[in-house]
Write a structure and sequence with these properties.
Elements (H helix, E strand, L loop, with lengths): L1 E7 L8 E7 L21 E6 L5 E6 L3 E2 L2 E2 L16 E5 L5 E4 L8 E7 L4 E7 L18 H6 L3 E7 L5 E8 L4 E3 L7 E8 L6 E7 L5 E6 L11 E2 L6 E7 L2 E8 L2 E8 L3 E6 L5 E6 L10 E7 L6 E7 L6 E2 L5 E5 L6 E5 L5
Antiparallel strand pairs: 1-2, 3-4, 4-7, 5-6, 7-8, 9-10, 10-11, 11-12, 13-14, 14-15, 15-16, 17-18, 18-19, 19-20, 21-22, 22-23, 23-24, 25-26, 26-27
C-alpha cells in the first residue's frame, strides 16, 4: 500500500502543499503462541507496546493502584509526583515478565512506548519537577495529572531490551505523544502543538530517524482539534479528533486541506491508534452505562465508512493501547485493577 498525504510542510501555509509518498504495509504475518496464562499482565501498568515479532508486550510499571484506576503521577498525598521509570517486558509465551529500568530515564515519568525494531524501544520521559510556564499550580487546579504531564518538556529515549542500555535521542520537546510511524521504515513520529488556541489549533508531526536526524515534518491545517493531540499517522490518511461542541467529538481523516468525519462519538475520545496495516483505528471513547468501574469503551473502526465494533467496555482511557503485529489482538489497560489484558479484535461486518 502507498500512502499519499497532502500535508503542510515545515514552511508556512502560504508556501503551499508538500505531497509526501511513503511505502507502508502490514508486513508479513507472523504466527506466535500466546500462553493461556498470559492474557493478563503479572503487574499493573500503562502504555503497552507490542513487539514486532508478537512475542512480548512492553509497558510502564505502575505500583500505585487506587479506586479502580492507577494514579499515574500521584502518590498517597495526591500531590507529590511519583516517578514511573520502570519498564516491564512481558513474555507472552511464558506469561512471565522482567523489569528494565533505563538509566537515561531515572526519576522521570515514562510514557508512549513504541518498538522500533526487534530489540529497541522508544519512549518519552519527563521530569515532573521541571516546570513550564503553562504548568498550573498544584492547589486549586482543575487539571488532571495526565494533562499536566503532557505539557511538560520531555526527552525522547531509546533502550535496548536485551542489554538494558539506554540513551537520549532528542531532548527538550513539548511533545504530547510519540508513535512508530510505520511498519516499514522504523521512523519515530513525535507530535507537537505549533499553533495553540481556544478555537483553532494546529499540530505538526516530526519524523525522526533512529539516529535522531529529522527526516521530514508534516503540519496539519488549523482546526478545532482536541487539545492533547488525539490522533495517529499510522493510517492511510492521518486521523485526529476534533471538537465541534461541548459534547460533540468527531474522529476525522485529513486529506490535504480537506477534513472528513468518519465517526461521531457519544462521548470524549481519549486515544486513537492506527493498525499495523493502516486501514483501521482503535480508539477509546467515554460511554455511559458500561461495566462497573469502567471508564472507556475500546472500539475498532475501519476507515472505509463501516461502523465500529466494540472490543472491550472496561478500558482505562488515559493509557495507550497496542495492536498485535497481525492486527488480530489488542492489548489495553483494564480500568478496575490497572492490569494490561489482551483481547481479540472481532470481525467487522
Amino acid at each position: 500500500m502507498t500512502l499519499r498525504w497532502s500535508v503542510l510542510g515545515p514552511m508556512s501555509a502560504l508556501a503551499g502543499l508538500l505531497l509526501v509518498s511513503a511505502a507502508c504495509g502490514p508486513g508479513p504475518e507472523r504466527s506466535f503462541r500466546v500462553s493461556p496464562g498470559a492474557l493478563r499482565s503479572p503487574v499493573a501498568g500503562y502504555d503497552p507496546a507490542w513487539s514486532l515479532d508478537g512475542t512480548h508486550v512492553a509497558y510502564v510499571e505502575a505500583t500505585y493502584v487506587r479506586r479502580g484506576d492507577y494514579g499515574l503521577l500521584l502518590d498517597n498525598d495526591h500531590r507529590t509526583p511519583t516517578p514511573r521509570d520502570t519498564i516491564r517486558l512481558w513474555d507472552l509465551q511464558t506469561g512471565k515478565s522482567r523489569r528494565l529500568r533505563p538509566a537515561a530515564a531515572r526519576g522521570t515519568f515514562i510514557t508512549s512506548l513504541a518498538w522500533i525494531d526487534g530489540s529497541t524501544i522508544a519512549f518519552l520521559a519527563s521530569d515532573m519537577h521541571k516546570r513550564t510556564p503553562q504548568m498550573p499550580s498544584e492547589t486549586g487546579s482543575d487539571w488532571d495529572m495526565v494533562s499536566i504531564y503532557r505539557i511538560l518538556l520531555k526527552d525522547l529515549i531509546l533502550m535496548n531490551t536485551k542489554t538494558g542500555d539506554s540513551w537520549v535521542l532528542a531532548t527538550g520537546g513539548r511533545w504530547p505523544q510519540m508513535e512508530r510511524a510505520s511498519m516499514s521504515d522504523g521512523s519515530i513520529a513525535v507530535w507537537e502543538c505549533v499553533q495553540p488556541g481556544a478555537d483553532k489549533r494546529s499540530f505538526a508531526v516530526t519524523f525522526l530517524a533512529r539516529d535522531g536526524t529529522e527526516m521530514r515534518q508534516w503540519r496539519f491545517p488549523p482546526g478545532r482539534w482536541q487539545g492533547l493531540a488525539v490522533g495517529t499517522v499510522r493510517t492511510e490518511l492521518p486521523a485526529m479528533v476534533r471538537q465541534q461542541g461541548a459534547q460533540d467529538f468527531r474522529l476525522s481523516v485529513i486529506d490535504g486541506r480537506e477534513t472528513r468525519d468518519i465517526y461521531r462519538a457519544r462521548g470524549l475520545i481519549l486515544g486513537v491508534f492506527g493498525s499495523p496495516g493502516g486501514g483501521r483505528v482503535a480508539f477509546l471513547e467515554e460511554v455511559g452505562g458500561l461495566a462497573p468501574g469502567a471508564q472507556s469503551s475500546l472500539r475498532v473502526l475501519p476507515l472505509d465508512g463501516r461502523r465500529p465494533v466494540a472490543v472491550a467496555d472496561d478500558a482505562f482511557g488515559e493509557s495507550r493501547v497496542a495492536w498485535s503485529p497481525d492486527a488480530r489482538r489488542i492489548a489495553y489497560v483494564r480500568s478496575h485493577d490497572g492490569h494490561i489484558v489482551i483481547a481479540d479484535v472481532p470481525p467487522i461486518p
